[in-house]
Amino acid sequence: MIIETLNLDGVVCTGAAIPTPNATLLVINAPNGLLGCGYFSLATADKLNDALAVVRGVSNFDDMLNAKVCEVSAAAEKLGIAAGMSGKDALKLMK
Q1: CA pair distance 1, 49, nearest whole angstrom
Q2: pLDDT (tens digit, 9 = 90+) per residue, 41-65?
Q3: Residue 79's domain is classified under what CATH number?
Q4: Nearest 5 degrees, angle CA 16-CA 68-CA 1?
């Protein structure tokens, strides 16, 4: 497992990369939400009222920051996060 601290214009986040037998699960945890790879479930995030933005086709933290958000949970929408924005911009709204 790889853990990395990311500072996004003053928003301190923690990235985790967890290898699985067939892929790597990627997540970046911000103070009030998560940016996750396609491994994550919006249904679960909505059930738990967690702010989650999902990006796909990523293989590292830089990819996640530059990728376009594909899906967002209801709690993420309330923070102003929308599909099409960059992962970095989504995380900044999770401050």
Answers
A1: 27
A2: 999 999 999 999 999 999 999 999 9
A3: 3.30.1980.10
A4: 10
Q: How would DSSP label each residue in 53-74?
A: EE--S--SHHHHHHSBP-EE-H
* Domain total of the chain: 1
The SS3 call for residue 15 is strand
pTM of the model: 0.95
In whole angstroms, what is the distance from residue 33 CA to residue 42 CA?
Answer: 13
Distances in whole angstroms, Cα of residue 16 to Cα of each of 43, 63, 73: 21, 13, 20
Average pLDDT value for residue range 64-75: 98
Residue range(s) defining the domain that contains residue 13: 2-93
Q: Which two tokens mark 65?
A: 């920051």
